[in-house]
Amino acid sequence: MTLVTAELKEGIQQLFEKLSSPEDPTASMGPTVANAKMTGPQSSEARWPNFTVISDEPKSVAGGDTAPPPSSIFVASIGFAENVIFARQAALHGIDFDSLETKVEAQWDRKGMFGIRDADPAITDVLIETRIETEAEAKRVAELVQLTGRRSPMTATVAKAAKVRRKLFVNGVETLV
User: Fold this and answer.
1) In the prediction, which pLDDT does 125 show?
2) Which of 25, 47, 85, 167 is most open to solvent, judged by the fewest CB atoms within 10 Å of its CB?
3) Is 87 left (phi over 0), alpha (psi -120 to 50) or beta?
4) Where are the domains of the chain?
5) What is the pLDDT at residue 20?
6) What distance in Å separates the CA atoms of residue 116 and residue 118, rounded to the nearest whole number?
7) pLDDT averaged over the chain?
8) pTM metric for this prediction
9) 6-21+32-175 domain in CATH 3.30.300.20?
10) Cα dihedral sign for 158, 161, 162, 167?
11) What is the dihedral of CA 53, 57, 58, 64, to 10 degrees?
């Protein structure tokens, strides 16, 4: 079963055309907003009209261990964005796929949270591993993965601050990106 549905193709094409229109060049600009409220010693929540995301820390650092920590949500958001942008690119380029999974691993020095030995708390290295099942040629999938990295707001932003590496597996076979 393909994840690139007719509705996805149609919706992405309409969005592409709208954003490409010279009639309103500001139509593509807008903020992304989240308001995080502290709800416990190490927990917070962000609310939108239809959604709530909760973050907590493990008990080992005085958290309640009731939700993923902020760093895990951050790396998951890179994976979420990669999946969405890949699906959009696939829809625009006529590539169907049956499954897509993106694993994101980020390296950072936790001493930086406390200013220990002037350690930098910033993420320094991100590995994005994409696994896809498709009938498309591996070369075309690799090209879409490259486009995804350049067009994903999350990945493009992170790449300005950290080294981003990639691994790609097409139908279980590692493929050069």
Assistant:
1) 97
2) 25
3) alpha
4) 6-21+32-175
5) 86
6) 5
7) 94
8) 0.91
9) yes
10) positive
11) -70
